[in-house]
Amino acid sequence: MSDANRLRTEHHVRLLQSGAVPDALAKAQAELLAGGSPAARAILDAVASSPPTPAMLTTLTGLVRPDTFGDFADALRSPVAPVADAAARALASSATWDPRALLPLYRDDRVARDRLDLALTAQAARVPAAEWLRALEDESEAVREAAVQALVGVRSPERVRELAEALRMADGRLRARAAEALGALGGPGVTDAVLELLHDPDPFTRRYATEILNASPDERAVTALAGALRDEDWWVRERAADALHALAARDLPAPLRDTIARALASAGATRPASPATPTPAREWERLRPSGSGAGAPAAAEVPRGLDLARLEPGTVLAGRFRIVSRIGSGGFGTVYRAEDRLVHEEVVLKVLAPQLSRDPETLRRFVREMKLARRIVHPNVIRIHDLLDLGDSHAISMEWFDGRDLGRVLHEDGPLPHARVRRIAEQALEGLAAAHEAGVLHRDLKPGNLLVGEGDAVRIVDFGLASAHLDGMSRLTRSGMMVGTPEYISPEQIEGLPLDGRSDLYSLGVVLHESLTGHPAFEGTNPANVLFRVLEGAVPPVHESVPGVPLELSRLIASTMSRRPEDRPDSAATLLERFRALP
């Protein structure tokens, strides 16, 4: 800019500051609006020394354009608060620039987040939802958070329609993000849009729809969800049942409750009516394995009113097991460390959760699976001893092993050295090879089911429990629990395909990946999102993010995590040989 033009621009800025007569003010604004970047910088410089007048802010807003955005970005970085504030206000008010240009600034520590949020929130509706969804793949967490804000901050019918349409996009990751955004928005508009998607020919679109209806229950969805119980896709059927059960627990009009009850009963998706309803003694007797030898549940008298989920140390069960301490609890029940006073050994007692223990069909499958699991006799597998009848509940006694589960090891120790991961992997594979040889799959291998003791001795725990409460076709229990943990479940488990030992190898590969990197290979904001990532996402090899991991080890782990079972090692024994052959 020449000196003459610079002086002329400064003169016009002073007119805006002074509140000149209207004609002079209008002329000054017109001159500045034609001045582009130099004019924007001159006004912003003036703001540093005196508060901006309305005329200055109006002119600044008019100067926001793609070619001047860099000047406003520089002003947002200014340590002078009035300058940064004026830039943010101008960006929030202008409709002549692309709001996506703000996203890189979320990575810049010099820019205040609240100023960026001001501009982004005001402008988010001008960008199609699909574009914000793509920003959710950015490597920066701050950018991803900004994109989420842009998506859920606009609660308009147009935004809901855009997100619903995005569920039909070819990119599976973006479809999952759209589903998350719709679930976060909620409300009648979302329900109306999603109900239409329950009839979409694409099964994955219908899956997203049922997940959204689970996140935002709406009684208007009852009829559509009842119809979804007959969907050809198992996921849609199961999650429609979950959504209906959630609605049934609400205070609905009697006709709606009756509709839900009839639909669930017709689909065979009813659940135990009440945790207070005990299993009849004769039913458990009929479920016992034949004979009185090993494997037959031991009957026991339990004091009435005893809370089996909160047993105090010193409590004696079945006249035999003295509670030492409570280890923890989960979906399957409560776990205790106990002393078996008959043989003077420490054991683990897993008391089954009421919804599992009081369902006759569940118990029948538990007996079958525990009998199978007892076949596994190997130093790297926790041994199951007995099934106990505790009256209104049931328990499993198993070998005690003094160690931490791998999840706790990773939480306390952080990512593990690759040599230590190899030791853990080889022992786990020895245990898996023995189990698979006995015809038993684990189905829920995860850090919490790998115990690590002194000298990194490894034991696999909970063989059979993951499938004991399921028949061959279902992947969700009647209590809504999934077979397998979303972060570690194999793609074929998600799809309801036949399983073999390669499914366990996949899960082990995911565990080993996490052991080296320190974070799960697949992450998401909810279980459904994680499952979609397992089905549709690729994971970078470990050596690309963890320096020092041998390329051969990284490739071997990646092979176990192949999307297709036929691309994985064909057995645990084969994979063990490959681990032992590593340099």
Describe this structure as you would to a colleague.
The protein contains 26 helices and ten strands. The model is unreliable at 271-299 and 468-483 (pLDDT under 50). The protein has 583 residues and is an alpha+beta fold. The chain has helices at residues 3-18, 22-33, 37-47, 54-63, 69-76, 81-93, 113-123, 129-135, 141-152, 157-166, 172-185, 188-197, 203-215, 222-228, 234-248, 254-267, 281-287, 354-357, 360-373, 406-413, 418-437, 491-494, 501-517, 527-536, 551-560, 572-580; strands spanning 298-299, 316-317, 321-330, 333-340, 345-352, 384-389, 394-399, 403-405, 450-453, 458-460. The strands form two sheets. Strands 1-6-7-5-4-3-2 form a seven-stranded mixed beta sheet.
Estimated radius of gyration:
31 Å
Count every helix, treating DSSP H or I runs of 4 or more residues as helices. Answer: 26
Residue-averaged pLDDT: 82
Strands, total number: 10
- Structural class assignment: alpha+beta
The portion of residues forming beta strands comes to 5-15%
The biggest sheet amounts to: 7 strands, mixed
Helix content: 40-55%
Regarding quaternary structure, what we see is single chain
Give the termini distance in whole angstroms.
66 Å
> How are the strands of the biggest sheet laid out side by side?
1-6-7-5-4-3-2
General form: elongated
Ranges where pLDDT stays below 50 over 5 or more residues in a row are: 271-299, 468-483
